[in-house]
Amino acid sequence: MSLVGKKAPAFSAPAVINGEELVEDFSLDQYLGKKEVIFFFYPKDFTFVCPTEILAFQEKLAEFEKRNVAVVGCSTDTENSHWAWLQTPKDRGGIQGVTYPLVADVAKTISSNFGVLAGHYDYNEDGDMVFHGTPVAYRGTFLIDKAGVVRHCVINDLPLGRNIDEAIRMVDALQYVEKHGEVCPANWEEGKDAMKATNEGVASYLASH
């Protein structure tokens, strides 16, 4: 079931903030009424595609911040693993220099509630709990508005890296819609024409494009 249009699942979990500070009770509630949030999941620390994405978000962090958007990452690793990876230089496979929060979903409840856990728990014939699949998060990206509602999400399979510029485009689209009350057509980007959500508005847009 998609979370789009619904309240983002609440959580309180350990995290590393500012690249080095361990906190025990990080929550997205701190942004309610203040900022939109890009909340993204990645499979594992100390892997291959993941650092390219995490560092790409950091490289674009100023673009999100000037739009008043918080960026928060999450995986099923421990906060200690996050911290160690954050202290590891890039030329050794690390993500040193990342400053936005990384949440530790060790219990896998956040990933499960957001629908990105790459597998599921079940019971075998002996009544023992087993896990089917891979017990890590898919590459899920969620755009959450200031009211805490999910407005956009995309979930990639484990080997498929995401497009950070597309996340920025969706932020721009959401903010444009909320400011102007118009809708954004296919391939819309900041600075391009939007349209009114009426038959006349669509006809006028199509006629001019």
Automatic annotation (TrEMBL):
Q: Does the keyword Ribosomal protein apply?
A: no
Q: Which InterPro entries match?
A: AhpC/TSA, Peroxiredoxin, Peroxiredoxin_AhpC-typ, Peroxiredoxin_C, Thioredoxin-like_sf, Thioredoxin_domain
- List the GO molecular function terms: peroxidase activity
Could you tell me which SUPFAM superfamilies the record lists for this protein? Answer: Thioredoxin-like
Q: Name one Pfam family in it.
A: AhpC-TSA
User: Thioredoxin domain: which residues?
Assistant: 2-176
Q: Does the keyword Oxidoreductase apply?
A: yes
Keywords linked to the UniProt accession? Oxidoreductase, Peroxidase
Q: Which domain of life is it from?
A: Bacteria
Give the family from UniProt: Belongs to the peroxiredoxin family. AhpC/Prx1 subfamily.
Q: What does this protein do?
A: Thiol-specific peroxidase that catalyzes the reduction of hydrogen peroxide and organic hydroperoxides to water and alcohols, respectively. Plays a role in cell protection against oxidative stress by detoxifying peroxides.
Q: Mind telling me what this protein is named?
A: Thioredoxin peroxidase
